[in-house]
Design brief:
By secondary structure, the chain is of the alpha/beta class. Helix content is 30%, strand content 26%. A six-stranded parallel β-sheet has the order 1-4-3-2-5-6, with helices on both faces. It has a six-stranded antiparallel β-barrel with strand order 9-10-13-12-11-14. A two-stranded antiparallel ribbon has the order 7-8. α5 (103-114) crosses α6. The longest helix has 21 residues, at 306-326.
Length: 336
Amino acid sequence: MLRWTDLAEVPADFGPTVVTIGNFDGVHRGHVAVCRAIAERARQDGARAVAVTFDPHPAAVHRPESAPELLTGVGDRLDLLAETGLDAVLLLRYTLEFARQTPEEFVRRYLVEGLRARRVVVGKDVRFGRGNAGTLETMIALGERYGFVVEVVGDVGQTPHDGHARWSSTYVRELLATGDVAAADAVLGRPHRLRGVVVHGDARGRELGFPTANLGPAPDGTPVQGMVPADGVYAGWLRRPALGDDADAVLPAAISIGTNPTFDGVERRVEAYVLDRTDLDLYGEEVVLELVERLRPTLRFEGPDAIDRLVATMHDDVARARETLGSAVRPSPSAG
């Protein structure tokens, strides 16, 4: 899949195209269904399938105090979009200047002149251009003016356990906020991911017999990517992208999220214990954690036997994680 961050990168002979527009945060099953559909439509039309998306999220520019926590970083978003069969993604830098374009200016510059769109696929509630003045009716009228067809896609899919909730990034965030990663994974069509670099912690896990990989920001300051769900202990996978198809590229793990209240911790941390492995040196390595199921909430142990009870509970966590992951589909190393 071709990846562009500016119209100048689009080849002059690229097109005609079938284009869809969106934030695609999380690239959930609804997004995947739409992108696969436009890829198939493009093949039928003898065209190329393109998604136009934005970074940062428009809400982070217009309403930074209430912007949603993103489900995926930009790199993961593009990788997931590539798996849908798209020919290209145009990732546009979203700024206040960009937002000042009128609906017609946006359509003419990016869809017509830049991508040579023959067909534009949007949701019924599409909004674009200055002040979100552009609507579905606007897009249809501009299509008639500039020679492209507008197709409307409705809500795609519903979660098996809740027929009233459509697949959406907002719904996934709500599920993660409660720790229900299993339900979030059902909407995403894959385990929810956290990506970061392994940094030094307090070494307390090692002292207790459970050495953990603590996720932190990359050396360039890039923070941990992916929405961190509610505090608790999770079963999941630790993926090591740098290892490719190596046997140690995907490892089963018990993942703790929280402040370590037994030790009066105040800093919220994400740390993973690779089951039955004490020989790994992961410091400085970028890893991806994939969350499969929440095993329990965070607990605070008090009293003279607090450490003993904590260690016993951690042994139980490991046993439950092993059981949970034993019945889960092991991810392919190449999918990270």
